[in-house]
Each structure stands twice: as structure tokens, then as C-alpha cells.
Amino acid sequence: MADPRFYDNHGPMALADLAGAIGAEVHHSGTATSVHDVSDIHAVRAGELCYVVKRPLIAALAAKPGAVVLTTPAFAPECAALGLSVLQHADPLAAFARAAQTFYPVAGRALGPAGNDRIDPTARLGNNVTVEFGAVIGPQADIGDNTYIAANAVIGRGVCIGRNGFIGPNASVIYALLGDRVIVHGGVRIGSDGFGYASSPAGHAKIPQLGRVIVQDDVEIGANSCIDRGALGDTTIGEGTKIDNLVQIGHNDTIGRRVILVAQVGLSGSVNVGDWAVLGGKVGVADHVDIGPGTRVAAKAGVSRDLAAGQDYAGFPAQPAALWRREVATLRRLTKGQKRRDE
Amino acid sequence: MADPRFYDNHGPMALADLAGAIGAEVHHSGTATSVHDVSDIHAVRAGELCYVVKRPLIAALAAKPGAVVLTTPAFAPECAALGLSVLQHADPLAAFARAAQTFYPVAGRALGPAGNDRIDPTARLGNNVTVEFGAVIGPQADIGDNTYIAANAVIGRGVCIGRNGFIGPNASVIYALLGDRVIVHGGVRIGSDGFGYASSPAGHAKIPQLGRVIVQDDVEIGANSCIDRGALGDTTIGEGTKIDNLVQIGHNDTIGRRVILVAQVGLSGSVNVGDWAVLGGKVGVADHVDIGPGTRVAAKAGVSRDLAAGQDYAGFPAQPAALWRREVATLRRLTKGQKRRDE
Amino acid sequence: MADPRFYDNHGPMALADLAGAIGAEVHHSGTATSVHDVSDIHAVRAGELCYVVKRPLIAALAAKPGAVVLTTPAFAPECAALGLSVLQHADPLAAFARAAQTFYPVAGRALGPAGNDRIDPTARLGNNVTVEFGAVIGPQADIGDNTYIAANAVIGRGVCIGRNGFIGPNASVIYALLGDRVIVHGGVRIGSDGFGYASSPAGHAKIPQLGRVIVQDDVEIGANSCIDRGALGDTTIGEGTKIDNLVQIGHNDTIGRRVILVAQVGLSGSVNVGDWAVLGGKVGVADHVDIGPGTRVAAKAGVSRDLAAGQDYAGFPAQPAALWRREVATLRRLTKGQKRRDE
To answer: How many DSSP H helices and E strands does chain A contain?
Structure first.
């Protein structure tokens, strides 16, 4: 499933060999005798490996003939009953991380030109593209007409950038596809690894990050902001969205269209932000949270649950803004009363 | 008004042509028949275009003979009565953004050397200047004696840096004038675009950022911090001010002398911070807020209103520090009481 | 005490000359007639200068024969009674800053290759090291086998990086020693100056930062994060610790093994974080705070006091997480009651 423009797949492997390589056991061999890629449970196709550790998700595998699933011994019979090939392991996530590592041993490397050219000879540059001194363009990158790459920026292998774009000084864009008229300011990091580990008493094992970043037309991204690529699948920034400086966007986030993210906002992974939402400065959002379209979150709020569409929220934990203001007033009033009582 | 060291003005334009280009209507032609620049209402001079959307500001235009003003149809007669040339448009800010775009179509680009030299031949380097490998110096830049530019830093067109300065690795300094003994650590972004848009149901239209950053003597700026340039006019950092890492300073902020900004502070646009103020780590400040000289704001506070001089503040919303501590104590006490009541 | 791989010591100086250079007075000449370095009170050795401004620390000097101590006139007799050489000054920290400046006048500069090579000829590269285009390697740097240096990264003078490492695009690593399998993402700043000043009515005098950053094996550091080097001594990141994007780590912090620091965490100076601790996104920690091993701090918390081992904390000021949740519930309940009373 990993995009071959960015990732070199070292597969396929026989099912038994893969099981051996990751320390898993073949519970049921199903119809797939070899595995050629890793995927997530929603996108998995025949011959691809996914993992499942939550029972309610198992049902989704019924529609995935030929998939290979890695799960716990407890869930293995249920998966096998669907006719799938099943590998079992006490810690499926850790084993999956090893499988991803086996297929993609150098994910996250090999960004720039292999040779001594700063613009790789296989890169394609449109008409009137400017590449300032020190900017580096990797192999198979594709830069649209009139796009301007400022000094010492780095464009990684396979990256596509549309027309009339601007990439600022010292920015880096890797594992990403950018639309037209995208403005990326200095020091921005698009496409770095997401923060994903399989933790156990032995430590935090890295889960290879094999996704991309998709940035639609007319997006602007402020200086030194970071947008991590998806773990599997994509991190997406919708059309016309504007992102201020020093913002953190986690892996597999989906940001809608014409969203405003003010400086120092931080989004954990797998967050959804609806169209036209506005997040004030320093807002933090927990993982897997949905923020409804048109909703406005006041500066410094901390969002740990889904927020409805078209509302104003504030505070930590975030709540309706009017309620937060009343809480602030209540505490102030009670504190004054407390003082009088103490006197 | 935009500094010609940094911006190429594509004007002048006949008043009627400009109106046509931005979709505005000539309400009154006044004395100015052509427009040669854009400006803000406070600095506007004869032949320059400004906009006004708040009635109380109109009076300021009485002292601006020859100015051209862009406003709503409702305010147009009042402006015309002052003898000014008046353009009207339902959304003056959006129309002004288009005018700025017309005069300065490539603002924010054209930073580095145009040719194949990494130090532009028109740049002026003082005595004993060091430029490490990979550092790029743009046209007309001026670097003072004994200043050290570390590897892969980028100094943009027209930038002036004083004597005995240090620019760290991978930092970028654009649209800026720096004094003597200024220390800029690695990855700092000075002079990126401020976060300014004219929003409408059609989306967020970018307002070209045409100002500068002024950094006075003996300032130090920590790694990966960002200081945006003014929208029109300057962002200013006063003498001897020290800024820690990952700090965000918005467009048109005015930071006084010997101010301390601890790591991850974030200031919105048009903030004023008085001399000798101290803002603790992660403090956030809303736009157009004034913080008095000598005032200290505790870490993590959120400042949404003006703060008096010489006081201690804390909490969110920020309040006198002693009051905040009492509120924390009150809530703790009430919570314990609540528990007893529940038991 | 400063590591000569990174710092050129311009000493030694006669005791009287040093006193003159920094505006101090020789209170007692002791056994040391010359000074060859600066140090902190815990590591100071014969012939090295340290300072002390807190009475309880003076006792530690009893075990430091031959040390030279800079202190206030009030404490000078007590120090002299230990047989030490003693310099006195009304502001010992400011005088110490000048002494450090005297010994190390260019600390923080001279990072990259002196000549026209982007890989300094004195750098040592192991087998199968990749250095992408635009990456710069300073003198005496040492890069282990199979390590990958991405485009436009900067490796400073004397830096050691172990085997199988990855340094991302536009990252800079200076004044640092890195273990094996360390992953440093794009735009990371390792080894910048800590935020240290001797403040007086004349301003904030810079205290030269003369330490290092030690990063143990299997550490991963997210994009655009900053780890400042020690002021004197080291900032240390323990084995297997994982750091997300845009994190700030102050000078002389000691981060244990297998710690998790989520995005936008900010640690002041001299913080200790125990093994296996987890700090959620945007957590802030005040200087000199100890966080016990295995402790978990919820996102957005502000930690101003030591935290015990193995506990869950939340809120600001940070407190046991269960208590914080009850406080949130209490305030919500009281606010609802308040409303009823108002109606």
C-alpha cells in the first residue's frame, strides 16, 4: 500500500517466512501463501498484511478476501473463521512493526539526489521554475510551472509540487504531494515520521511510517510548522486551509478545507478537523478527536472529546465557550467570598 | 511605503485603472489621479492607498491630503467630504489585499542570489566576516565587521546585519535589519510572512505582507523561533531583549528593550511588550494587547487584555498572580469540601 | 572543564590578571596562583574557577583543594577559611560570565569547515556513510558506519555520531555526542546555547554556554525540536527515549531512559525526568524540577514542583490526576448551582 514513488518494497515473502521473521505463528494459512505488503485494516487487499487488536474491528475483515491478518491468539480463531490467513503473536502491534520494517527497511531515508547533482537528473521541472542556490531536489520529484524553491530548501524523492507554489528557505518537503499555489514558509517540515511506537517492557519499538502528506490547492503553512506523514495512509490538508507558525500536525490527521490553525496549535494523530473550523493559538487536540465543521475553539483550549459543528468552545477540558466564561466568573466570585469569610 | 530594498513596486497606476483591477468603484476622485503605493491609515501619504473600515478612524484621514482611501459605500461620503480620493467596495480589506498584490505581485519571493553564486556579487561583506559552507547571501545584503554566518544559513536580499553578530546554522533572515552583536541561533526564521487574510465565504484571501523586522543591538534569539515581518510597517525587537527557543512573534509586534521571552511563548499580531517585561514559558498573548513595562507574566498564562506596568500576573485569563494563587487554593478547598459532602 | 573537542581554551591566566579582567578583587590568594578554566561548584578542580552565591553550597568546596572561588564579599571569609583562592565581586554571576567569556571568547562559533570543503578533511566517516548534497560536516567530526546525513544538515566541529544513525534534512547537531541508532528528524537543533544571563540594571549579560549534549543509543527526536547544550556540564537524553516534534529541552536537563515526550513539551533548565516517564503534549516543566520514574503527566499540564514516581498527574499547577478531574467536576457543578441562584 505504501506509495512506490516514496518507498521501495523489499517483498514479497512466503507466509511462513514472514511469520518466522517477525516471531509470529501461522494459525491458519488461508488462501494467501505469500505476503507482498503491509496495510491497515480498512485498506488491506489480497496478499497484504494488517493487524487487529480490537474485537469490534474483526468484522471489517469479512470483506477482505485474501488478506493476511496478524492478531492475538485469542482472536485468531475468529479471524480464521472468515477464511483469512492468520498469524498470531502475543503483541501484534510489535510484530506488525517488524513486518513493516522487513518490507521497508530504509523507510525515511534516501531523500535527496544519489549523486553529486543538487537537482537530481530525474527530477522534472516545469516552465519558469526557480531553484535558488543550495536548494536540493531529489529523484523523480516533479515541480510545476512558476514554482519558486528558496535557498537551502530540500525537496525529497518523488515529491510533487503544483504550479505557482513557494517553498521557503530551509524548508523540507518529503513524502508529499502538494497542489497548486501552495505556500510553504521557511523551516517547515512536511512529511517527517509520525510518532508511533509499539511499547513493551523492552522499550519503544519504532513503527515504520509508510504514508504520505497530501496538501491541496491554496494552502499556506507558516514558518517552522511540522506536518507528519501518515503511518499507513495519508495526512491531508484541505483546500484553502491556512496554518500559522510552529504548528504541529500529527500523522493521519485530516484537516478540512479553509480551516484556520493559529500559531502553536498542536494536533495529535488521527484528528479530524471539519471545513471552516478555526483553532486559536496554542490549542491542543487529543488523538482521534473530531472537530465539527465551522466550529471555533478559543486560544489555549485543550480538546479531548469530539466537538459539535458550528459551535464555540473554550477552556481545558474544552467546553462551550459561554459555559467556560461562567466557570471563570464563578471561581472568581467564590474566591472573593472565601476571602471575606477568612477575614 | 514598502521598503524598496526588499520590495519592487510595480506602480503607479491611474486611479480608475486601480479601481478596475480590484473591483472597486471610484466614489470621489479628489486630487489624486494616480496611486503609486499602498500604506496603512496612520502612515499614508499623498498618492498612496489605504483602507478604513472603522468610523472612528476616518478622522485621522483629515491630516492626509492627497491620500486615496478605500472604504465601504456607507463611509465613502464621509471620506469624500475630507477632499480625499475615495474608492468604495463592499469588502474593503479584500479589495486592499488585491491592490497590494497588484503593486507587489512577488512579495515574499526573490530572496537569494539570482545567479549561480552563493554570495551574491552585489552583497557587501565587512572585514573579517565568516560565511561558512552552504550559507547563502542575497543581493544588496550588507554584513558588518566580524559577523559570523554559520553553515546553510540564508540571508535574504537587502538584509542588513551589524557588527559582531552570529547567524546560526540553517537560520534564515529575510526582510530584516539587525543591529550590532545580535545572536540568531540555528533554525530561526526572521521575516516570514505574517498571518493575515481577508476572509469571506469564498475563502481566506492572502493579504500581502510588505513590512520588515527591526532587531536592535544585543538581541539574542533562540533556536527555531519565528519573528514575522510587519504587514505594513515593522515588527520591532528592542535593544538587549533575549528570546528563548521556539517562540512565536507575530506581525507588527513591538517588543521593548531588555525584555525576556522564555521558550514557547506565543505573541499574536500587534502586541506591545514594555521594556524589562518578563514572559514565562508558554505564555500566550492575544492580538493588540499591551503589556506594561517591568511586568512579569508567569509561565503558561494566557493574556487577553492589557496588563498594567510593574505587576505580576498569572493564569488564564491572566490576572494578578496573588489572585490566581487564591483561586487555585479556593478550588482545591471547595473540591475537598465537595468530597466530604458526597461521602 | 569545557570539552576541548568543542571549545578552545584561551587560558591560563594569573589570578591577579583574571581578577582585573573581570572587575573582581583578590580576597585570598590560596594555593592557586593561576587559573586555567571555569567550572561549576560540583565539578571544579584545582586551578579552575567556580562561583558560589548560596551559603549552603560553600561546604561542598571543602573537598576541592586548589579550586578558585568567586563569591560575594559577605561569603569570601568563609571560603578563604577553607584554604581556597577567593575572588570577590558584588555580582559573582556577572563576573563569572565575564571570566567564561575571557577563557572562551568564541564559544558558540566555529562550527563548520574552515575551508572550502563541505566535508572537512579532518572529519572521520565510517563505512557506508551517506552524506547527501548540501550537508556540511565540521572538523574532527566522527560519523559511524551506515549513518545517513540528509541534505543540508549541519554537523558541527567535534561532533560524534554512532552507527546506523539518521540526521534529517536541515537539522543541525553541534557540541554533541550521539550514540548508535539515533534518529534526528528534519530541522532539529541539538546543541544550541542554553538561555542563561546574569541580569542587572544594566541589562542581561550572556553567560557563555560551555557544555555538551549527550544522546544515548536508540533515541529518536522529532522534527524542529530543540535540545540546548549544558551551561557547564551536559544535557543528557537517556537510551531509548522518544521525543516528538517541536519539543524544547533546556540546558542541563537529564532525561532518563525510555521516556516519552509528546509534541510541544517544554522543559526549563536542570529538569530531571525519570526512566519510563511519559509527558503528554504541551506539558511545561519549571526549572530544577524532578519527575519520578514511571510517572505520567497528562497533556497541557504545568509542573512547578517535584512529582513522585509512578503516579498520574494533570492540570496546572500539576496535581494527582484524580484530584484534577474532581476539581474540574466541582467547578462545573458550582457554576451550574450559581446559575440557578442567579435565575
So the answer is: 5, 38
Q: How many helices (H) and strands (E) does chain C have?
A: 5, 38
Query: Shortest Cα distance from A223 to chain B (angstroms)?
Result: 7
- The answer, yes or no, to whether residue C170 has pLDDT greater than 80, is yes
Region for residue B108 given its phi and psi (left: phi exceeds 0; alpha: psi -120 to 50; beta: otherwise): left
- The CATH number of C124-313 is 2.160.10.10
- Check if C13-103 and C124-313 are the same fold: no
Q: Which of A171, A226, A331 sits opposite C246 (nearest CB)?
A: A226
Residue B10 known to be catalytic: no
The pLDDT tens digits for A271-304 are: 999 999 999 999 999 999 999 999 999 999 999 9
How sure is the predictor about C339, in pLDDT bands with cuts at 50, 70 and 90?
Answer: low
Chain C residue at shortest CA distance from A246: C246
Q: How far A128 CA sits from the closest chain C CA (Å)?
A: 23
CB contacts < 8 A, B to C, total: 149
Closest in C150, C186, C331 to A327, CB measured: C331
Fold observed for domain B175-322: UDP N-Acetylglucosamine Acyltransferase; domain 1 (2.160.10)
Mean pLDDT of A54-59: 94
Output the CA torsion C152→C158→C163→C167 (10° steps). -20
Among B206, B248, B333, select the one facing A264 at the smallest CB separation: B248
Give C13-103's CATH code, choosing from 3.40.1390.10, 3.30.70.1120, 3.20.20.70, 3.40.50.10240. 3.40.1390.10
pLDDT of residue A338: 67
Average pLDDT of chain C?
95
- Of A188-202, A251-265, C25-39, C298-312, which gets the smallest average pLDDT? C25-39
pLDDT at A116 over 90: no
Residue type, B228: D
Task: Give the residue extent of every domain in chain C.
Answer: 13-103, 124-313
Instruction: Please name the residues between 144 and 183 in chain C that touch chain B, using a CB distance below 8 Å.
Output: 152, 154, 156, 170-172, 174
| Contact A263/C at CB under 8 A | no
Work out the number of other CB atoms within 10 angstroms of the CB of residue A62: 12
Q: Enter the pTM of the model.
A: 0.97
Task: Say what the pLDDT of residue A106 is.
Answer: 82
Rounded to an integer, the average pLDDT of A152-179 is 97
**Min Cα separation C221/chain A (Å):** 10
Strand duo B284-285 + A234-237: pairing: unpaired
Q: C47, C11 in Cβ contact below 8 A?
A: no
User: Do C152 and B168 make contact, defined as CB atoms within 8 angstroms?
Assistant: no
Subunits in contact with chain A (3 or more CB pairs closer than 8 Å): B, C
Give the 3-state DSSP-derived string for B284-307, with helices as H, strands as E and coil as C.
EECCCCEECCCCEECCCCEECCCE
| Residue A232: DSSP 8-state | S
Q: Please count the other Cβ atoms lying within 10 Å of the Cβ belonging to residue C230.
A: 26
A124-276 belongs to which homologous superfamily? Hexapeptide repeat proteins (2.160.10.10)
* A296-310: pLDDT as tens digits: 999 999 999 999 999
Give contacts of C228 with chain B, Cβ < 8 Å: 223, 245
C187 contact residues in A (CB cutoff 8 A): 170, 172, 187, 189, 224, 226
* Helix, coil or strand: residue A263: coil
Predicted confidence at residue B343, as pLDDT, reads: 45
Strand positions, DSSP E, B89-229: 124-125, 130-131, 136-137, 142-143, 148-149, 154-155, 160-161, 166-167, 172-173, 176-178, 183-184, 189-192, 197-200, 203-206, 212-215, 220-221, 226-228
User: C292-337, pLDDT tens digit by residue?
Assistant: 999 999 999 999 999 999 999 999 999 999 999 999 999 999 998 7
